[in-house]
Structures are given as structure tokens and as C-alpha cells.
Amino acid sequence: MAPTQPSQPLTTTATTIERLRQLSQTSIQSSWHWAHTDVSILGSLQQDSWSTWPIAPLNQRQHIAWPRGQHPLWLCQRITVPETLHGYLVQDQQLKLALTWWAEQAQIFLDGALVQAGDLFDCFTRIHLSSAVQPGQSFIIALRLISPGHDDGALVRSHLIYEAQPNEPIEPGFLADELSVLQLYLTHFAPDQQSHLDTALRQINWANLSHRDHFHQSLETLRHHLAPLGTWIKQRQIHLLGHAHLDLAWLWPLEDTWLAAERTFHSVLSLQQTFTELTYTHSSPALFAWLEVNRSDLFQSIQYQVRSRRWAVDAGLWVEPELNLISGESITRQILYGQRYCQDKFGHISPIAWLPDSFGFCWQLPQLLAQGGIRYFATQKLRWNDTNPFPHDLFWWQGLDGTRILSLTLPPIGSDIDPLTMATYACDWETKTGLPEALWLPGIGDHGGGPTQDMLDKAHRWATSPFFPRLTFTHAVDFLQTLETRLASPPHQHSSLTDISLAPNASSAKSKTNDIDTSSPSDSDQDLSLPVWHNELYLELHRGCYTTHADQKWYNRRCEDLLYQAELFSSLATLLTDHAYPKAELETAWKQVLFNQFHDILPGSAIPDVFQTANDTWQTALATAKRLLDQALATITQTLPQPHAPSNTAIPIFIFNPLNWKRSEVVTITPPPSSSTKHLWCIQDSKGRHVPHQKQDQLIQVPEALHFLATDIPSIGYRLFWLSQQETSSIPTSKNCPDWSLENTFLKVTIDPCSGDLSNIVDKRTQREILSGPGNQLQAFVDKGQYWDAWNIAPDYAEHPLPSTTLNTIQWIESGPIRQRLRVIRSLNRSTFTQDYVLDVESSLLKIETWVDWQESQVMVKAAFPLTITTDVATYEIPYGTITRPTIPQTDEDKAKWEVPALRWASLGTSDYSISLLTTCKHGFDSQPSQLRLTLLKAPLWPDPKADRGKHHFTYAIYPHLGPLSAKHMTRKAHGLNIPIQARLHRPNTLAPDGDPWRSFLSLGDSSLVLSSLKLCEDDSQGFILRCYESQGETTTLNLKTSLNLDIQYSTDILENRLDSQVKHTPSTVSILPWGILNLCLKRP
């Protein structure tokens, strides 16, 4: 290439820097020939047949772009070394080719030989072309690129870098970067001194440009004159920590994750042999557990490096999970199993929750982390906000209960050693925090990779520069401990940088060194107290992840609920009998669930192969939990008394309540086949009194089933009913209804016969109409135009509504004294919604059981409920608590929360009345002062082109209730919807001894306490852990009542470490603070 002469030197720093850079670096972006073909051209490279290809055009961003869809592109050019660059001799210098691309696959060929490959994440490199170039030397570079399936491909940047030989004077381009760093720091911290830098730069002897030695001498003189500024900058420090973010599953199948981990870890271990100072961190004990079993030699090498403090397992949690959609107990198990693994395999727990990429963080996380022995929290995901930049880099995050945890906004992951990028980040960090020490994470990420030799070579080179902050390798925990120490130390008086005088000769420069204050910037007289963030950490992005891939949300909720019950009843069975507690099986099932809670699996943002594997895992965990639950209940029923059978043929029905409050609910049972056509089944209570019941309609899947209202089922207990035969045909069944209304003691619900919407819901207790317009209106919107299709919802979706659904049919399914069920079937384009409005006797909960055949693309559908109450805030359930969010946004942060997550319920409430939406597996909501909407389904095309297409089954409910909103009441209602009471028919060989027909095994007393777990202790086979949380935001007392002869022995943290000195208790009582999470060890006295 024939170099172009630079323009005449100007007097500004920026133009001088750019002129120096042009003497060592040159772009080759405009010289590529291109061909849209996948035919290999390697065999004809030397014949230059590619030279007839057209020159690739550059777009406005100076990129070479080509269409998305995994299309191939070849780029080729011959590079010939010139004698000079803009008059500067380049002979004998090193030559490197720097490339940055956006491609699903990238292959780089040098003179026909493959020298490197990359992908979307391993997307930049520097290729070594020559150790000592000679004028006229040439190289043929060919690139084979495949565009991403979801986005246009691009060659983003390509340029040549001429570098000086080791131990030779630095090249002009390196000085240009040094000067850029100086300019950055002066701009941020001493802007009134920049004119001195301009003055110094005029001393460069451009007349000697063609005489390299003389020109270098003038550059060295300049560097010496600037030495006082170097002293000032060297008071700062950038801590390096090698890192390779590795998504356990995302745009690759799980099997590829193991290979990427193996490749990455071998690379790091190899580099640590050469670069002995290199420290490295990785998260996810689940990944190391796989290595331990499948790559034991590699695992042992990592263990050795951990003991040598050259490798850190910064974990805290089993995986890096989604933290808005999982239960508080799931987060607890993430911490419990993650920390226990670290302790067992690496000798210590992790003091840091390393969660760089999870999609937002619930408000109870600080308390949970602190209870898991975690002192620090780190993420970089908040840098992705699409509306408001997150304001803090270092802050105290205060949880719902008041727990504070030191929190760090990490630098961007997947970063190179780039001096200007690093200095820009460090200046911004110091501006925000007042701290002169920053952290940087070099390493290729997302699909593994880690630091490269080129990164470490550049780090070595910049560590020797006098005009760059000190570079040292460290660990994240050491870095944070250093910051804690600085924050705890009182500030010292320090004068600012005010008198920089750069002399024209070396001796004068030396004499002026003392004119520059060399105190550490951290010693300035400034307030180093940290800001406090007292709220959730809401990610202003990826709002579609609350909804996408609904199957994952369904599986997760079902697994969580069944594992809770399997553990609970296994514990009861163990306490009541000689039943062997299935600890290993439960732990295995929990870890399967925890793995699938990874932040690209549960949110639904992965490729189809990932979900095929995940669904197999979900189903295995479900089967295990169900089997263990059935075994435990079967064991328990064998021990229970069955007094006063109303007849010799009567079959006992044990109704078990898995929740810690008394419940009355409609139960559906399936009687055994009757041997007589003259006898029909009936329900009787323990005293032989007939219980009203209703035969399920033939249109339901189990036509012989019976509904009845099971009343007053005790907390964590059971009540006995009987299934008997009677000689009558008077069992109530469905009856014909003249209209489309459901009605019981509490509600009258009317369905619009033209649309299938709810036209009225009247609360008969107050004669209040709760709907201000059509309720359960299915509103569909175009949802496209987002790069992160599965992750995001189009911000302008409300401007693109689709036509309303069409009512196909409306019909009664059941209309009896126990249950009324009215079915509406509606069409939306190619999709069908079948919804049953279900109203049970003695219930003010209207359930909407839903089946969908979903066949849309890039469409989102919501269920809207306009209401007759108006309020400024909506309340939502989060893991182990609640949060209020404004219905009328007041701040920019409020405005960004136009789609928000909730766990099981959301409510609008006034001082005398409240209305709530409850869900079994839907999490996305939006609210207005008089409306709640629930997002039901999305239909993205990337990265899974068929995400959510197909069959769905889920339930949600609307629940009007008297009085102001009670979080504890709503939490109980939502738990009840998700965890129904369990009915077990039991034909004993012999009747058990007489006894009470009901029993509460366990009660916690106060109505605001919610049981989260009853399980065997991890390390004590005689003890059981009872975990509960306070759900109303009030100080209260747990009053343990149990028929199992258990006492409170001591309180623990999540890791089951004893905390006697912190929580006072008696054998049966213990106080709990608002929103507190309580862990107790119970034993028999």
C-alpha cells in the first residue's frame, strides 16, 4: 500500500497523538477484496486470482457488512511492507495484524495456512506476521467468515501495527497511546494543566522523522520531560484478574460447554506456567463438579492452583442463576450447595457472589447472601440498562430486611488488554468512587476462552510504561478487602495537582519534580462513604425473559413445589416411622433443578438443543420428587389412626395439607371402580356425616372423579374423610344453566357471550363491581425489532396492537353445588385459547384454567384486568418478600419499569379493598392505577426459532378481598393455588388403632410466617432444619407447636452453622424481624 502523507502538524494534543499513531499503525479496512462464496480459495491464493474480486464496500460505521443467516464470506488482500510509514522507517520492526469481527465463525489464513479461528465471542485478535519486517516483504491474508443467524455479519476493524523490538526504544504508536492516557487523566483530574502537555509536545523534532534514531531521541526526551506526570499517574493502580465468562448453555448445547471449559482451563494452566503472576477466577461449582467426575486430572490441577492462590473459585451459588423467577428456597439451595462444594473441594467457602450476567436481582438477595457467608456481590449486567445508566460502581446494597452487602459493578467482561479502554474505565471509576484502584478482567468470555498470551504480553509491556497506572494481578476478594480498608480509614488532607511546570531540558524537568503533588489520590479530602441502594436491582433490559419459553417456567415452579413437599413429608415420615430419609436423591434432584435455573435456560434465551436437554432434566427431577412424595405419604398413611369407619367397605381418604396454615378447599378424588351398578360413591366425614359432593362432568379427563369441599385441614397435617357406597342415584352433577354466570356466596361472575371476556365480577359481600371494563381480555401485540429477540420486549409494542380474539364457543362444563366451570374457546390468528372460568363453593377466588395452542411469531399476548379501584402503587411478590412499584411513574427509573417480574401474585389495593392476580407459572406484569395485566406468551424467532410454539397449560386467578392489601394473606392464597392439598385413598389391611381423625404435625403460630423447608440437617442425622420467612414486614414471634416431639435447639445460617449468640429462643419460641429469614435446627429433647 502506498502510504498517504499526514497533514501538517497542528498544535493540539489530539492531532499530535494521531500523527504519532500513524507512524506505527495503518488501517487496511478499505483494501479487502470480497466474494460471497463458500468455495475454498486457498489453493489459488498465490496466483492472486482473488485480486479480480471487487473491493468490499464500507458502511457508515466503516464496517464490511454482509447479511445475517449464516452466509459465508471470503475476504482477501496482499499486504506489502513499505519502506516508511509517513516518512518513518519501519524496517526490522515487528508486524502484527489486528482484527475484530462479528461472525458466527471466523478463520484466518496467512499465506494459505490457518493461523487462528474464532466466533461471536472470541472476536478479536492480533496475528503475528513478522518478527523483523523488511521493505517489500509481503503476506497474503484471507478470512473466511460466516454471518450470525440472527444478525448481519461484519468485519469491524482491521489494521497493521508496527512494534519496536524488545529492549529497543518504543515506537511512536506506543507513545501515542501513552499520551492519550495522560490526556485522559488530565481531562478528568487536572483539566487546567492540559496546556502544559500541549507545550511539551511541540518539542518533538519532526524534522528528524526520516532519521529514526534521532527522532527516537526526541521522543525519549519528551517522555523524560513528562516524567512528573508519570509519577502522578503511578499513584493509581489497575488490578488484573484473568476471567472467562462461560455460559453453561446458550448458543451451544450443554456438551459443548464441557469442552469449552476443558479447553479454557487447560489454556489458563498453561499460561500460568509462563506468566507466574497470572491469577484467574471462575464461578459455578456445578461446572467443577462435572470436571471432578469426568476430567479428574484437570480438576486436581485446578485444586492445586487454588491452594497456591493463583486460581479462585468465586462462586457463592451453584450456578449463575436467574434471580427474579425462582423461589427464595431455590436461591437458598443455590447458596447452600454452592458453598458446601467450595468448602469440601477447595477448603473454604466463597466470600463473593460472582454474578456478572444474571438478568436482575431480587431485593431479598443481600439477606440470603449474608446468611450464606457471602460478604460481597459483583455483577456487570446493570451496565446493559437500556434507559438509565446504573449510577454506582461501588455501593452498599441494602436488602428488604436492612441487610447490607458491599456491591461492585464489575468492568465489562470479555475484555482485552487495551490501554485506552482500561484508562477510560479507571478514570470513570475514580470519578465515581474517589478510589485510585480499579479492577480489570482480561479474557475472552461467554463461550470461555480466558486470557491469551497476547493479552499478557501487552500487560507486561504496559506495566513498564511510566505513564500508565501500576498493573498487578490480584483476586476479586483481595481487591474488595482493600477497598473496605480504604473506606474504613479516615481521609487525609492533600493538596491537588496545581503546579505542573514542564521544563525544556532534562535538568530543569528534574528540578521541577517536587512541584507536582505525588500523594495518593485516595488521600484527598473527600467523602469516601458509599451510596446505599435500598431497592431491587432491576435490569432495564431483557424484560421478555419473564415470559419466553413458558415450558421452563412451568417446569421450574412444579419442581420447586414438589421438592418442597417431598422433603417435608419425607421428614415427617422419618420422624413418625423408621422411614429412611432420601437425602442423596433429594440433593440430586435439587441440583438438577438448580442447574436448569441458569440465566440462559430458565429465562428461555438459548438454542433448541439446550431445551431438549433441560426438559429431560426437569422431567427426571419431577419424577424423583413425585416418587419420593408418594413413598413418604404412603408411609405416613400406614401409621395414621382410622377410627369409626362408617361401613366395612368404606375407604379412608386422607387429606394432607403441605402448608403451615389451616385450609378449606375443594378436592377432587378418583374412586376405585365399583363392582356394583346399584351403588354410587359418597363422601362422609370422620363422624359419618355426609359431605356435599359433585360428580365431575364427562367432559373432564377423569369422568368418575368426585369434587367435595375438604374443610379445616390443619397446618402441616391431615384430616380423615371416608369414601363410601350408597344405594342412590342422587349424586349431584352438572345442571343446565340459563345464562353465562357463575355464582357462589362471595362472587357473581358474568361472561360476555360475544367475546368470552369477563363482563362483570360482583363481590356480593359489599355489592361492589370490581371490573371497570372487559376483564381477562386477551390483548395481542406485534413484538419485533429487538436484537435480543427472546430476551426483550419491543418498547413500542403498545403502538402495534393486533385484532381482538374471536369467540369460537362458550359452554358449561360443570355447574353443580361444589364447582362451576364455564369454558370459552377463542381464536387469535392461527392460535387457539381454551379457558375455563372455575368458581368453587365457599371461595372468592376465580380461577382461569388455560390451554393454548400457540402458533404465532413475534407476537406477545397479555391478559388485561381493568379495575374499579385506583392506587398509586402495585405490590408484587418477590422471593421471600414483596415489593411495591409505582403505577404512575415519577422518575426515569420508574418509567423504565414498564414490564416487571413477580413470583406468584400482584395486587392493587386501597384502604378498604384490594384485588390481586395470582399465577402458577407466569411472571411478567404491568400495571396502571386501575389496571393489572399479566403477560401470557411471547413468540421470538431467535435464538430458538420455534420457542413457545405448541401446547401450553397454566392457571391464573383473580382474587378480590376486603380491606387493605395484606401481603401475608396474598402469599398464603398464592401458595394455595400452586400447592394444592394432597388426597390419598388408602385401603389398609387392618384398621389402625383409634385416634383423632385429624392432626397437625407442625404449626408456626403467627400468620405472617411461611414455611420454606423442613429437611434433614446436612451434617447431623438427628436434626432437622426448619426454614421460614416473615411475609408481612412486621416483627413477630414463631411459636412452634408440633406433635413430633421436637424442640428448637439452635438457630443457624443458610449453611447450617450455629448462631446461638445472635438469635434468642426458647425450646418453642423465637422472635423474627420484619422480612426475616429464619433457620432453626430441631431435635427431639
Please outline what is shown here:
24% of the residues lie in helices and 30% in strands. It is α+β, with helices and mostly antiparallel strands and 1085 residues long. Strands 36-37-38-39-48-45-44-41-42 form a nine-stranded antiparallel beta sheet.
List the helices and strands and how they pair.
Blueprint: H1 13-22, E1 25-27, E2 33-35, E3 64-66, E4 72-80, E5 84-85, E6 88-89, E7 94-102, E8 105-110, E9 113-118, E10 124-130, E11 138-146, E12 153-163, H2 172-189, H3 194-201, H4 212-225, H5 227-233, E13 237-240, E14 242-243, H6 254-274, E15 280-282, H7 285-294, H8 296-307, E16 311-313, H9 328-346, E17 352-354, H10 365-371, E18 376-379, E19 394-398, E20 404-409, H11 419-433, E21 437-440, H12 453-463, E22 470-473, H13 476-488, H14 506-511, E23 532-533, H15 550-576, H16 583-596, H17 608-639, E24 651-657, E25 663-669, E26 680-685, E27 690-691, E28 693-695, E29 706-713, E30 717-726, E31 741-743, E32 747-751, E33 758-763, E34 768-769, E35 777-782, E36 806-815, E37 819-828, E38 831-840, E39 846-854, E40 859-866, E41 873-878, E42 881-886, H18 892-896, E43 900-901, E44 905-909, E45 913-919, E46 924-928, E47 931-937, E48 950-962, H19 967-978, E49 982-985, E50 998-1000, E51 1002-1005, E52 1009-1016, E53 1024-1030, E54 1036-1042, E55 1047-1052, E56 1069-1072, E57 1077-1083
Parallel strand pairs: 13-21, 13-22, 14-15, 15-16, 17-18, 18-20, 19-23
Antiparallel strand pairs: 1-12, 2-4, 3-12, 4-11, 5-6, 7-10, 7-12, 8-9, 8-11, 19-20, 24-30, 24-49, 25-29, 26-27, 26-30, 28-29, 30-50, 31-32, 32-33, 33-34, 35-40, 36-37, 37-38, 38-39, 39-48, 40-47, 41-42, 41-44, 43-46, 44-45, 45-48, 46-47, 51-54, 52-53, 53-57, 54-56, 55-57
Helix pairs in contact: 1-2, 2-11, 6-8, 7-8, 15-16, 15-17, 16-17
